[in-house]
Amino acid sequence: MSDLNSRLEAIKKKLNLVQLKEKMAVLQKESENPSFWQNHEQASEKMKQLSFWQKEISQVEDLEALIKAGKDQEAGSELDKLELKTFLSGQHDQAAAILSIHSGQGGVEAMDWTAMLKRMYLKYFDSQQWPYEVVEETAGEEAGLKSTTFKVNAPIAYGFLKHEAGTHRLVRQSPFNADALRQTSFALVEVLPQIEEKGEMEIKDDDLEWQFFRSSSQGGQNVQKVSTAVRLIHKPSGLVVTCQTQRYQEQNRKIALELLRSKLWQQQEKKRLEEKKVLKQGRTQAGWGSQIRSYVLHPYKLVKDLRTDQETSNAEAVLDGKLEEFIEAETRQLN
Length: 335
Fold this sequence. Notes:
Number of domains: 3
Number of strands: 11
Helix content: 40-55%
CATH class of the largest domain: Alpha Beta
Largest sheet: 8 strands, mixed
């Protein structure tokens, strides 16, 4: 019990609960002002943050109760989960995330692999009760996806997901040829923080070029007849983002700006890190030599992270979204 108490006190200190409670009090008072909900979207984001803080404090209080009740095993398990959050001290670790998956080497196999990874991540988000929305998707010609992007609208999502960025390699018997040959496919995962509109990434209207087009659809009665999809070009950097999943053009415009802010931050961060010679981030070729994790389904079953050496033979569970052990190892070892 002494060890559990000392671990809990260390966590409370790192989470800075006194300051957290002060922030909550300020936000709660702000929410009582009638003008608070005039900007409904901004108010909703603040209330999500407040709910997240309340959950953290509730976790600590529940842990104190478990330790007092002598439920050491249960308390130890909950302490492990809460302890993970103390590793997230990066600039944007408390932010929501934008996660993209791009098919790499392997043709139709790689596009199918991209769709499998999408399913894996969405199942993981569901298990964590993290809300998300798909904001851009390009289907493959024969099967799978060329790329997909979704916003993960949960505080701390970027902190937990950022080390998922990199090339993911799949080895399996091909379902796309009669001989069922062994096939290796690659997909690239990008993870960016959602950058607040008023903050470090200010964007000038004169630097933007907007293009509008019809969203792709399956045809029939629901065929898109108006140009709701948007393509946004940032002229100084040459960055291009698209969004076409929302029904209204204004919604797609807003999401495109969010994606652009995050990509501009990524570009700035890449430059900073390259100058310091610490780490090179950003888009790399999704192929041999650049993978961070390998998923083998044939001739044996094994998922192994090449940075942390975390591995499991239960590949089906991982592909069903059971990523906790890999994300925990990344959080503890790579931060």
